[in-house]
Amino acid sequence: QVQLGESGGGLVQAGGSVRLSCARSGRTFGSYGMGWFRQAPGKEREFVAAITWSGHSTYYADSVKSRFTISSDNAKNTVYLQMNSLKPEDTAVYYCAAQREGYWPDLTYAYKYNYWGRGTQVTVSS
Asked: CB neighbours (10 Å) of residue 55?
C-alpha cells in the first residue's frame, strides 16, 4: 500500500509562485511514476505534470509548460511541483498520484494511477 500526502498550497497573487510537495510512504518509492493533477470547481480532473520513477523523463500539460516544473527526491520519498507565473485559471485542488512503473502516455491518464492523495488547494487571486 502507498500513502500520499500533499502540502504547500495556499493563496497567492497572480504572477507569484508556489511549491507543492507530495510525501510518499509505504512501498518502495522508486517503483512508481508520479503525477500531479488538478480539479477546479465544476470541471473535470486534468493532468498537470508527471515524472517517471527514474526521474529521467517529465511530462507537462500544454497549459503549464514552461511555468511549472516537476521533480522528485527519491531519498526523501517526495515529489515536488514548482509553479511559477501563476494565473487565476490555475486555481484548483491539486492532487498527487502514484502509478506502478508508469511511463508515457499512461502517466497522463488519471484512471491509470493506483494511489491518490487528498489534494491541496491552490488559489490564485487576480
From this structure: 16
List pLDDT tens digits, range 40-93. Answer: 999 999 999 999 988 899 999 999 999 999 999 988 889 999 999 999 999 999
- As a whole number of angstroms, the distance between CA 70 and CA 59 comes to 8
- Facing residues of 95 across strands? 37
CB atoms within 10 A of CB 98: 25
Provide the 8-state DSSP code for 40: -
- The one-letter code for the residue type at 107 is L
First to last CA, the chain: 40
HSE of 64 in the Cβ direction (CA atoms, 13 Å)?
25
Write the pLDDT tens digit of every residue in 86-109: 999 999 999 999 998 888 899 999
